[in-house]
Design goal:
By secondary structure, the protein is an alpha/beta fold. The protein contains 18 helices and 21 strands. Strands 1, 2, 3, 4, 5, 18, 19, 20 and 21 form a 9-stranded mixed β-sheet that branches. The model has no long low-confidence stretch (mean pLDDT 95). It binds zinc ion. Zinc ion is lined by residues 94-95, 224, 266-267.
Length: 538
């Protein structure tokens, strides 16, 4: 770190606390904010004129999976689109899947590697503990700052694989030990992924013990709920019964009530147009819990589509028999009926599923197209077409799911006092990208400007100061003397997301400069991928 100084002159300072913007100067020295003030700072330093520009804290992507991609220092393409949208810090390890904090010499190591959704970033686990992972990142150098969570799913899989039966007492202690060690080594808490194996197998007792452990460490519990749709494969379908996403939400809130753990309800989405109707009831549950003193928050991305894999629609009994089930006539018939029924109940269908990457040489030409259109072009039934993609890709085709939530819900979550902003996105080596990789945070700022439903200061707070406070990132998230010089300079009038339905990998407009730990990594909107000024925040 050099002692070099840089004065950001005459910018509009939005400091990340939510306080009103003011015109002023900010002095960077040796990677930190040396001074920030209304009016002029005089310093013997180089000067960057920020007239007409917003100077804000670097954006914090508080729900990320990039802990799987940062070790891949040879592939900066995975992380530069994030830099170019103003992001300086990731909070990784979400949804139960963390790159670090697994059993040393786990017999399931290759199993985790093979079943890893983020394989393109981390094909091989070259570490076990968070301390080992941190050491390796510090050696290689990383593009961004990274804080991380311990992943219940990956830790559990390293002990028991994908075995659905309950853990023995010894295994339970082993699991608690792994999660505790990761938190002692700097993890900000523990993440659950209740919709995925092996999180889906965990029993009430196991969940409660882990929540209690997180509480005792005064850390955060983040939860990917058991269901995000009114009807799901996770709970039995009862006519006129309660919406599944609301049952899942109540379970998570009750866990926080019973254990006193601080709770982060990950990515509030409402899959299918019929699930949208449950939004008010869901937010009422969250508001009531907050009023009763439960420490809980939630988060959203700026899009109403999200990335997933093609098998996400298929029930557990079908997946348990894969790949034989892909060609089994009876099972295909059963799953076809189930899909038809749940699509009707959900207000969702093959017309909402866009192939991001078919992962098959003959089918890749359909990348970017919607399944219903592909079926028409191929002259086969929509279900047959879907199963062809499942079978040919061996279940690995990536999709973008639309009607994942509604534009109205995103607007409402953007302004809700208990919500924060994030991307939940990762870049892929080929095919259609999740637009959130390129434009998510600029899109929030564009929406705030165009819709005027939230002030610029409040929107910036939800992607900087609020996230830093939630995850205990004490020296980031706000522009204050002594804090790390993570800074994003942008134009409030031109900042915008340039992605479209067909072209999702477009750079945003309006990001001028980005500094990470005082190093300028973006200049005139362009990132220098060779720079690795990031730190592991442990
Ligand atoms: Zn998730």
């Amino acid at each position: 770190m050099t002692d070099e100084r840089l004065l950001l002159k005459n910018g509009t300072i939005v400091d990340g606390t939510g306080a009103k913007a003011y015109t002023g100067d900010l002095l960077i020295r040796a990677g930190k904010i040396e001074a920030v003030s209304e009016g002029a700072i005089s310093a013997d330093s180089s000067v960057m004129d920020c007239s007409g520009k917003i100077v804000s804290p670097g954006f914090i992507d508080m729900h990320s999976h990039n802990d799987w991609f940062l070790p891949n220092a040879d592939r900066p393409g995975f992380t530069t689109p994030f830099t170019e949208q103003g992001i300086t810090t990731f909070v990784g390890g979400n949804c139960g899947f963390a790159a670090a904090g697994i059993l040393p010499d786990s017999p399931y190591k290759t199993f985790i590697e093979d079943n890893n959704l983020f394989q393109s970033g981390t094909p091989e686990l070259e570490w076990a503990s968070l301390a080992e992972y941190t050491g390796l990142l510090e050696n290689r150098g990383i593009t961004h700052n990274l804080a991380t969570l311990a992943g219940h799913g990956t830790a559990r899989a390293s002990i028991r694989g994908w075995d659905p039966s309950p853990l023995s007492g010894d295994e339970m202690n082993q699991l608690l030990g792994l999660l505790e060690q990761a938190m002692d080594e700097g993890a900000r808490g523990v993440s659950f992924g209740f919709q995925y194996a092996p999180g889906i197998f965990s029993r009430a007792e196991e969940i409660k013990k882990i929540a209690g452990l997180v509480r005792s460490k005064d850390k955060l519990l983040t939860v990917h709920l058991k269901a995000y749709s009114a009807v799901s494969a996770t709970y039995p379908v009862i006519p006129f019964g309660k919406a599944h996403n609301l049952i899942a939400l109540e379970e998570a809130i009750n866990l926080a009530k019973e254990t006193g753990v601080r709770l982060q309800l990950s990515h509030q989405i409402f899959v299918g147009s019929r699930t949208w109707k449950t939004f008010d009831r869901a937010m009422a549950l969250i508001d009531r819990a907050a009023a009763e003193g439960v420490d809980l928050m939630t988060d959203t991305y700026a899009y109403h589509c999200g990335a997933s894999i093609i098998t996400v629609l298929l029930p557990e009994w079908f997946m348990a028999k894969a790949p034989q089930s892909y060609t089994d006539k009876t099972m295909n018939f059963r799953v076809r009926l189930l899909a038809a029924l749940s699509f009707r109940l959900l207000g969702f269908g093959f017309e909402d599923i866009q192939i991001a990457s078919a992962n098959h040489p003959a089918l890749n030409r359909f990348n970017g197209m919607f399944l219903s259109d592909i079926a028409r072009e191929r002259g086969v039934s929509p279900f047959q077409n879907y199963m062809d993609f499942v079978r040919e890709s061996n279940g690995t085709a990536r999709v973008l799911m639309h009607r994942y939530t509604s534009p109205e819900i995103v607007d409402a979550l953007m302004t809700h006092p208990l919500s924060m902003y994030m991307t939940d996105a990762w870049a892929e080596p080929e095919g259609l990208q999740n637009p959130a990789v390129y434009g998510c945070f600029p899109r929030f700022l564009q929406m705030a400007r165009e819709k005027r439903h939230i002030t610029l200061e409040a929107a910036v707070h939800k992607m900087t100061g609020a996230s830093a406070a939630r995850f205990g990132l004490k020296d980031r998230g706000t522009l204050e003397k002594g804090k790390a010089a993570d800074i994003t300079v942008f134009d409030r009038d031109t900042i915008r997301d340039n992605t479209t339905l067909e072209q999702t990998d477009r750079q945003p407009s309006g990001i001028d400069s980005v500094f990470i730990n005082g190093i300028r990594v973006v200049e005139n909107g362009k990132a220098d991928p060779a720079l690795r000024p990031g730190r592991v925040l442990v």
